[in-house]
Amino acid sequence: MIKKMKIEDSEVNGSNNITIEAHGVTVGEASKERIRRGAQAIFRRYPNLLGIRAGLKLESAKRTLRNYALRVRLELPGYDEIVEKKGADRNTLISEVLEVAERQLRRRARARLTERRSRRSEFVPGFINERIDMKLNS
């Protein structure tokens, strides 16, 4: 049994798409609110984020060994980032996955910034040297 819930949240960043899918589990209001708050924080810090899809799945149905798997997909321009973790406690799992997702976004932003800076440093000195040579020759 798959249940899909879509949370539209336009308060923070235009229209933030947060989709929660539950496979064999009912997602309570507390879990939905925890995912929504974590997603809002990520949307505020990374405005280029298009949406977040969370999938919660019951891995083991035994009462003593209840295990969950949570997969979060961060929809970004270009390649999406995917974080997946497994654990017994849903609330801890949600917090850990959102922390890892934010770390991945931070790492991606840092890599893009470094790439932009390296491209700029390669281009600018040659351009300045050409202008200086042109002034000296005239």
Write up what this structure looks like.
By secondary structure, the chain is of the alpha+beta class. It has two helices and five strands. It has helices at 29-45, 90-137, and strands spanning 2-9, 16-23, 51-60, 67-75, 81-87. Strands 1-2-3-4-5 form a five-stranded mixed sheet, covered by helices on one side. Helix 1 runs parallel beside helix 2 (90-137). It is elongated. The mean pLDDT is 78.
Backbone shape: elongated
Number of strands: 5
Helix content percent band: 40-55%
- The average pLDDT is 78
| Strand fraction | 25-35%
Sheet with most strands: strand arrangement: 1-2-3-4-5
Unreliable segments of 5+ consecutive residues: none
Gyration radius, in Å: 22 Å
> Termini separation (Å)?
78 Å
Number of helices: 2
Largest sheet: 5 strands, mixed
Helix and strand pattern: EEHEEEH
Structural class: alpha+beta
Short description, anyone?
Helix content is 47%, strand content 30%. With 138 residues, the chain is of the alpha+beta class. A hairpin with a 6-residue loop joins strand 3 and strand 4 (67-75).
